[in-house]
Amino acid sequence: MVPNERVRVVVAANQSNANAKVDAMAAGVQAARHDLLLFCDDDVRLDRRHFARLLAQAGGDVGLVSAAAVGTAPENLWGEVELWFMNG
Predict the structure, then answer these.
(1) Separation between Cα atoms, residue 65 and residue 59, nearest integer Å
(2) Among 22, 1, 23, 4, which Cα is nearest to 12's?
(3) Residue among 69, 84, 75, 66 nearest 13 (CA)
């Protein structure tokens, strides 16, 4: 990232879907400044060489967005367990 480039934080404040990841992705799409979007789950490692090839094929005007879901307010034990995995 260029040192002088601004970093924006977009929060998916409204839960419109039962899946928080979908809400985070939708907020990222709405805030996107580019036509081409690449989504990757936050627990997946993408090989650097593969990513570099994708960037080279896309051209010079590429932005990077990271969207991660953060769970809050579990309603029961299983909700707590899910948050342990999601937020851990």
Answers:
(1) 16
(2) 23
(3) 69
Q: Which parts of the chain sit beneath pLDDT 50? A: 1
CB 67 within 8 A of CB 24: yes
Q: Is residue 6 part of a domain?
A: no
Res 19: pLDDT: 74
Reported pTM:
0.48
pLDDT number for residue 35: 74
Number of structural domains, the chain? Answer: 1
Give the whole-angstrom CA distance, residue 76 versus residue 12: 23
Domain range for 26 is 20-87
- The two structure tokens encoding residue 7: 């970093």
